[in-house]
Amino acid sequence: MPSPYEYTRDELTRLLVGEPRYRLDQVWEGLWTRAQRVDEITTIPKTLRARLGEEFAAGLVVANDVQSDRGSTRKWVFRLVDGATIETVLMNYEDRVTVCVSSQAGCAMGCTFCATGQAGFSRQLSVGEVIEQVMFALREAQPRRLSNVVFMGMGEPLANYNVTIEVIRRLHENLGLSARRLTVSTVGVAPAIERLAREGLALTLAVSLHAANNVTRDQLVPLNRRYPLERLHEACAYWIEETGRRLSFEWALIEAVNDTDEAIEQLASYAGSLGAHVNLIPLNPTAGYLVRGSEPERVREFRDALVELGVNATVRNTRGRSIDAACGQLASVTNARRRSIPVRAL
Ligand code: SAH
Ligand code: SF4
């Protein structure tokens, strides 16, 4: 059964054929304005609620729920109908409320330092499954208003391209979120970045760079062998030219791997030539990658050196580190626990 958020307004109209026309507005308002589940839309008759209840899936099922930073960061693992798990993080900042959504269950890109990459790919998410995460977070955020959506959870959004674009369009049109407040983070699928640039959406693009020489990047991000730094540079330049928007590079700082003085030079030159912003993230440890993140002192030095070289660089605060909030980590812990139960029961 699909999520009601799988449906466009036209598709819902067809589903409500035979009902008075205002029913469509009531259902639409319940779903999108009030973020209600179908069985909570009490403005429509009980019989219709029951019929829609049979048509649609009930919503996301929480498999794990944790919080940190005194409740300002919350993270959920959801178990989908087929047993696949995904994760969603809600971050309350002073000036904004951001939800981080998954675009795939797992990821096929195999980045060595990433828990999702280590666990592998399960399947693509549907439009409804991504929007359900946003609506869940929107409800949980109340009375605050959800202001930003970032595609930085599990999966590579540009490897689920059509779904990502459709979700962005609907969040923009149906929720009224400005495209600028929607951020797609990609590992660097060059042709998809160029295609995205032509969509005419003023969204924010983040590219996970992590290394500015091909030898190191090949090791950290296997996709680099297909789209090496030179090709990625072309795609980034095209993005900037076509959209008139800047982009940012994500850089997870890994001790002695990409936090060296040489790395600073290479990154400054690569990012500088594109006028890109650099977001530094201290590496979150994962079970499958036993190299340490850089010490806080080195993180600061790294940033200062970039700034000195004229690059706009900031350190992203590691919200939710204590709850495994980095990409895929909580879902992998939840699954490991689940798998271990029968073993212990023996
Ligand atoms: N697949 C997309 C979006 C999801 S990953 C991408 O790679 O951009 C979101 C971000 O988390 C990426 O920048 C990714 O490199 C980063 N990330 C993954 N594992 C991490 C870890 N262990 N520590 C710090 N950042 C990590
Ligand atoms: Fe996939 Fe992004 Fe993790 Fe790489 S960092 S494995 S692209 S989710």
Key traits:
346 residues; alpha/beta; two-stranded antiparallel sheet; 12 strands; binds S-adenosyl-L-homocysteine; binds iron/sulfur cluster
3D structure, described in words:
There is one protein chain. Helix content is 39%, strand content 18%. It has 346 residues and is an alpha/beta fold. The strands form 2 sheets. A 10-stranded mixed β-sheet has the order 1-2-3-4-7-8-9-10-11-12, sandwiched between helices. Strands 5-6 form a two-stranded antiparallel ribbon. Helix 5 (127-141) packs across helix 6 (161-175) and helix 7 (190-197) packs parallel to helix 9. The longest helix is centred in the C-terminal third of the chain and has 17 residues, at 329-345. It is elongated and about 65 Å long. The site of iron/sulfur cluster has 12 residues, from helix 4.
- Rg computed from alpha carbons, rounded to a whole number of angstroms: 21 Å
Helix-and-strand structural type: alpha/beta
Spell out which ligands are present.
Answer: S-adenosyl-L-homocysteine, iron/sulfur cluster
Could you tell me the mean pLDDT?
91
Which strands sit side by side, in order, in the main sheet?
1-2-3-4-7-8-9-10-11-12
Number of distinct beta strands: 12
In percent, how much strand structure appears in the residues? Answer: 15-25%
Distance between the termini: 35 Å
Number of helical regions: 12
**Low-pLDDT segments, ≥5 res:** 337-346
